[in-house]
């Protein structure tokens, strides 16, 4: 947890790598995932960089892999989503072998695909010819056969002579069904009605050889007379992409031709099945290695893309790169560089230099599977400035606790706890499943859901609320002192705590309040004051956390000029109000012997706080003390006056201090430059240096004001002061959402029980049991959908707002940028999500 307190220290490093060892060294760094490279070639076009040829080579390999993957999915072969042994980036020799293997596989698949298309095209043509021959049987009547059959012609009479003598010719073929009507109209127009068209729709669709989509077609026969009309009809058929097939007019010849076509179709089926089997074997063999090849190519492309960030030195014998490295990981980077050089047998080792810089480093918070979800909540608001105090450490507890205050129900908490526990216990199996974006959000926050359910069970036990009912574990401390007749004759009785309450319930709320008519009034008071107490404590903790940043960044003046007036303003006003709540609970008791100490004389804390701010005395009540303790008016006036003094303290303290120190710095700098010029000998020039103080002042969270004019400093400080003073009031009121949502959740749960489940519980007999079965299912559905999911989401969002606005605004700047290391794991995971 030490790493979670603030972001890790970062170092800007310069690495020098030999060109022959650059590939393997960057590969080792990608496996470690602890280096963020800087682009040293911002002004160089992407197509003019040194390794652009290698990147294009990787793009070509990716294209081939995508094509092979598409062909594999087309055949219904399932690729492995999870690879147990993730391969490393290939070395140059493996790259050549991989490229040759992919080239060979792609060519083989292309050749098989082209052959399959050709075979299917032949199969389609033969199928259409068979359909034409089979469907034209009924088109020819006995007389037409007699006229068209060449066996009845006189010897030496050709077709043209036969047509001139009155016999009809015909053209047979197949056309797409959606073009039949336009085709028929066109034939009518070109022939002026002298074409007789017969057609028959095919019931079974044919398959397109290229796409495999079903095609519905129609067989047609066009009868005509004359050679000129025959040429026109053929041109129309060509224009409508109709397939024309030879069809003998003789019935015997058609039968023989059909038999021959069927034989050829059977042979083609056999060849097609063998081709498909061979294709399946090739794709099945490739599918075993394709995921590994894909990962290797992605790693190789990432390496060359990263190498394009490097610069070549003047001698062209060394690659120079800059990167951000966590200080703790410097030995790991050194080892990765040495391993990369050793892998290629380089005689000159690569080395790493840490360089000084004024640039703000990236923010890196090392997380694990438990803290990652909470850190993501904080980073969604804004990445912490460098070395700024990290709120995620405290959010791990405060977030589920504030959620549970609003979601306080033991039953609903158990549902959340079971769901979160199921995801945590089965995380190794569930992390391999792909359930979409919503599932990834739930699974990423599994530990948040687990803690929210656990804390909801705790607050539900404190509220003594389980599905709007209470548990009588320790027995009620309220005892009825009325006789039987009084109880039976009166619909409601008021119980005096002086005589009816014996002791204090051990933990949580007494279950007797579940039956009380004034339950809502009691819970309103209890939860409203509880929300104010929690809110003030949360804000005080947030203001105190600013001291940690001031001390670390050596802004000790801000402790006096910012923290002290802020904490005084908050504690003297709202902290005093919280104290009066506790003091009121302690002082006033129903068993008090003096009337002034009874609950009837207890003043309203809210009215008392308003009178305190307005300097008005509390109203006098007969028999009661108008003040809760001696000297209360004087103490309250003192607190208000000190709080008012804190406003100009915050408004003017810091700007005046900056103005005073700036004059001293300018005076000291002028004297230092004068002394330095006197001491320098002829020909010497001063060297620029980077002091530790300037490095700290330029770091994240410690923003200097040296270049800012005083007018802007006064304006910014005025904005911050007004924002803090007004937000102290609005933020305190904002914590009342803890009370409002908790009360709304309890009332919705009670309505759901009384309006739904109680209907089934009131029924008797067998019909009541059947009705209860369905009513219970509806109650469970509404409970999960409304109470757990909708109310849970509402409480989650309100808790998120309380942390982002009310808590983190007291100390958190969030002006940094995240550390994004070069990591193969991150690259592969992001591409899988896409």
CATH topology of the domain at 137-246: Alpha-Beta Plaits
* Count, helices: 27
Helicity level: 55-70%
Instruction: Point out poorly predicted stretches.
Output: 145-165, 674-702
Tell me which CATH architecture of the domain at 137-246 applies here.
2-Layer Sandwich
Which CATH C-level class of the domain at 137-246 is it?
Alpha Beta
Task: Outline the biggest β-sheet.
Answer: 5 strands, antiparallel
Count of individual beta strands: 11
Rg calculated over all Cα atoms? 43 Å
First-last Cα distance: 32 Å
Description:
The protein has 834 residues and is an alpha+beta fold. The chain has a domain at 137-246: Alpha-Beta Plaits (2-Layer Sandwich), CATH 3.30.70. It is built from 27 helices and eleven strands. The chain has helices at 2-5, 19-32, 52-74, 92-135, 142-148, 159-164, 180-191, 227-239, 251-307, 330-343, 372-381, 392-406, 410-425, 427-430, 437-444, 446-463, 484-489, 497-500, 519-552, 556-587, 605-614, 632-679, 692-698, 710-734, 737-761, 765-807, 824-833; strands at residues 10-17, 36-38, 169-176, 196-201, 206-207, 214-215, 217-224, 243-245, 311-312, 319-326, 351-355. Strands 1, 2, 9, 10 and 11 form a five-stranded antiparallel sheet that branches. A four-stranded antiparallel sheet has the order 4-7-3-8, with helices on both faces. β5 and β6 form a beta hairpin. The longest helix has 57 residues, at 251-307.
């Amino acid at each position: 947890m030490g790493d979670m307190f603030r972001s890790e220290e970062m170092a800007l490093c310069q690495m020098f790598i030999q060109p022959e060892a650059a590939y393997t060294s960057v590969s080792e760094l990608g496996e470690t995932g602890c280096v963020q490279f800087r682009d040293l070639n911002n002004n160089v076009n992407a197509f003019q960089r040194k390794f652009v040829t290698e990147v294009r080579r990787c793009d070509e390999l990716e294209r081939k892999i995508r094509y092979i993957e598409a062909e594999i999915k087309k055949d219904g072969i399932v690729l492995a989503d999870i690879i147990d042994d993730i391969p490393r980036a290939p070395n140059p020799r493996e790259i050549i072998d991989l490229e040759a293997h992919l080239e060979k596989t792609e060519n083989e698949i292309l050749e098989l695909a082209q052959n399959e298309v050709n075979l299917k095209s032949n199969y389609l043509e033969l199928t259409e010819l068979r359909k034409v021959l089979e469907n034209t049987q009924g088109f020819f009547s006995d007389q037409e056969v007699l006229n068209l059959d060449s066996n009845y012609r006189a010897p030496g009479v050709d077709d043209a002579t036969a047509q001139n003598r009155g016999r009809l010719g015909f053209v047979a073929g197949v056309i797409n069904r959606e073009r039949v009507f336009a085709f028929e109209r066109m034939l009518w127009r070109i022939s002026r009605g002298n074409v007789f068209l017969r057609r028959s729709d095919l019931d079974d669709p044919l398959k397109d050889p290229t796409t495999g989509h079903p095609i519905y077609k129609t067989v047609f026969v066009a009868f005509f007379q004359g050679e000129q009309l025959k040429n026109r009809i053929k041109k129309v058929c060509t224009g409508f992409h109709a397939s024309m097939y030879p069809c003998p007019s003789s019935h015997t010849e058609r039968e023989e031709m059909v038999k021959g076509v069927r034989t050829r179709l059977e042979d083609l089926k056999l060849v097609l099945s063998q081709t498909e089997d061979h294709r399946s074997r090739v794709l099945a063999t490739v599918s075993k290695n394709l995921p590994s090849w894909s990962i290797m190519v992605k790693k190789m492309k990432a390496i060359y893309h990263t190498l394009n960030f490097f610069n070549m030195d003047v001698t062209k014998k060394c690659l120079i790169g800059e990167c951000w490295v966590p200080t703790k990981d410097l030995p790991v980077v050194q080892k990765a560089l040495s391993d990369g050089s050793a892998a290629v047998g380089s005689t000159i080792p690569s080395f790493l230099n840490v360089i000084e810089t004024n640039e703000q480093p990236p923010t890196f918070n090392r997380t694990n599977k438990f803290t990652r979800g909470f850190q993501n909540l904080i980073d969604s608001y804004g990445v912490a400035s460098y070395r700024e105090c990290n709120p995620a450490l405290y959010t791990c507890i405060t977030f589920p606790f504030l959620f549970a205050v609003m979601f306080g129900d033991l039953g609903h908490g158990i549902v959340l706890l079971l769901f979160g526990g199921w995801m945590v216990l089965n995380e190794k199996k569930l992390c391999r499943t792909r359930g979409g974006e919503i599932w990834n959000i739930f699974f990423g926050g599994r530990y948040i859901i687990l803690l929210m359910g656990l804390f909801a069970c705790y607050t539900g036990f404190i509220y003594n609320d389980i599905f709007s009912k209470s548990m009588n574990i320790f027995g009620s401390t309220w005892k009825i002192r009325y006789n039987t007749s009084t109880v039976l004759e009166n619909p409601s009785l008021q119980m005096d705590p002086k005589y009816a309450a014996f002791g204090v319930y051990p933990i949580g709320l007494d279950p007797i309040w579940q039956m009380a008519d004034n339950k809502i009034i009691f819970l309103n008071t209890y939860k409203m004051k509880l929300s104010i107490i929690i809110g003030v404590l949360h804000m005080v903790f947030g203001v105190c956390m600013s001291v940690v940043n001031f001390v670390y960044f050596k802004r000790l003046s801000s402790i006096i000029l910012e923290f002290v007036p802020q904490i005084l303003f908050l504690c003297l006003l709202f902290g005093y109000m919280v104290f009066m709540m506790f003091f009121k609970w302690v002082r006033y008791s129903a068993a008090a012997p003096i009337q002034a100490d009874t609950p009837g004389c207890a003043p309203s804390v809210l009215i008392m706080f308003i009178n305190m701010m307005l300097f008005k005395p509390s109203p006098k009540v007969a028999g009661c003390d108008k003040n809760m303790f001696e000297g209360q008016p004087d103490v309250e006036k003192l607190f208000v006056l000190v709080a008012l003094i804190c406003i100009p303290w915050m408004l003017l303290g810091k700007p005046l201090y900056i103005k005073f120190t700036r004059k001293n710095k300018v005076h000291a700098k002028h004297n230092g430059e004068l002394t330095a010029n006197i001491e320098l000998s002829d020909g010497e020039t001063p060297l620029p240096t980077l002091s530790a103080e300037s490095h700290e002042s330029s770091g994240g969270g410690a923003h200097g004001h040296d270049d800012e004019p005083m007018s802007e400093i006064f304006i910014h400080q005025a904005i911050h002061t007004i924002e803090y003073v007004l937000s102290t009031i609005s933020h305190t009121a904002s914590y009342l959402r803890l009370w409002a949502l908790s009360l709304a959740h309890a009332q919705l749960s009670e309505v759901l029980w009384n309006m739904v489940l109680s209907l089934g519980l009131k029924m008797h007999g067998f019909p009541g049991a059947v009705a209860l079965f369905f009513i219970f299912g509806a109650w469970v559905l509404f409970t999960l959908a409304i109470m757990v999911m909708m109310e849970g989401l509402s409480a989650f969002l309100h808790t998120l707002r309380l942390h982002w606005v009310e808590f983190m605004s007291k100390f958190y700047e969030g002006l940094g940028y995240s550390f994004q290391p070069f990591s193969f794991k991150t690259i592969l995971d992001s591409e899988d999500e896409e």
